[in-house]
Amino acid sequence: CDQQHFFLLLMAPHYKKSGKRWVPCIRKRLTQSALPPSNGFLVIEANGGLNQQRISICDAVAVASLLNATLVSPAFHLNSVWRDSSKFGDIFDEDHFIETLRKHVRVVKELPENVSAQFDHNISSILNMRTKAFSSQSYYLEKVLPKLLELGAVRIAPFSNRLANSVPSNINALRCLANYEALRFSEPIRILADNMVDRMIKKSALTGGKYMSVHLRFEEDMVAFSCCIYDGDWKENIAMENARERGWRGKFRRPGRVINPEANRRNGRCPLAPIEVGMMLRGMGFDNTTSLYVASGKIYNAEKYMTPLRELFPLLQTKETITSPEELAQFKGHSSRLAALDYTVCLRSEAFVMTQGSNFPHFLMGHRRYLYGGHAKTITPDKQKMVLLFDNPDIRV
């Protein structure tokens, strides 16, 4: 049948055609030559979750190159939503990062003693350049560089999406080098993540060692931010209002703000509930022998919402089921490190399913294409069309 044909096609080895493989820009755009003397030190503060931090780090590498500055290993802002106190070296292999970029951008773990002393050993004493989002190359060269040359160090905090996308190709190639080569996870994360991948392969005997991965965005903060309705009872209303207030402090109660859950759903802005993900995959031909890895944070009302998905896909695994409590203990309370485990297992899956636009799936899709010569299988649902099917009272799983 058509569904079975689609299933076999999707789970076949990654499509490769001679002469049609993409070539990473770092192989064509980057040249290696002796770096000129540094103009000073660039200090940045990355915020958000794991992949928002990755964006900031990649942009920081590019900006450091533009300014011919020495980049200090980025500091991470303690986010009120993610609440992860991890340092750069807790998540990423800092020595590998420095070595990979060595011929393109200078990176140091901390300010040298003599430079730090000029600012009374206080990072906040360094001039903070209040840079607008998506600032151009000319802004950095005309506004930031003179201050860097004058003071010997400048700081940009927060540093989130602070560089325009339209920069020279060699600068964008540095972003790619940073993201796909220099940013390797720390050894504790790599060891456990590799073990998780091996276990998924062993548990996928019915599909020849191949497994699918799903990024399920159905955590409480995501449901709250979407302003969509699921249970629709008073308990959910109170829980969502409290979550919105904790995370965004009055943003959703500003005068003139209109919240329309029905319109959000029609427009495809609501996160797919676990049962909806299951129905979609079943409709595509994936049956109860499919090996499925679900990447997520703490699912909202998990006992209620995950049970139907597990019934549809009994071979479903998560990082909690594929590891022991002792293995996960070192990562508890560190959402970015836990996300790094999920990222690795999804990266090496045969097919990847995104359910909600966010940094995680977008980074992952790019990374998978980078690894597989431009060809990696991703399912991206059209939620505006899907909702018409889900709301059909005659639908059957």
TrEMBL record:
Instruction: Write out the entry's keywords from A to Z.
Output: Carbohydrate metabolism, Fucose metabolism, Glycosyltransferase, Transferase
**What GO MF terms are annotated?**
glycosyltransferase activity
Biological process per Gene Ontology, one example term: fucose metabolic process
> Superkingdom, according to UniProt?
Eukaryota
Q: Gene3D superfamilies of this UniProt entry?
A: 3.40.50.11350
Q: What family does the entry list?
A: Belongs to the glycosyltransferase GT106 family.
Name the UniProt record assigns to this protein: O-fucosyltransferase family protein
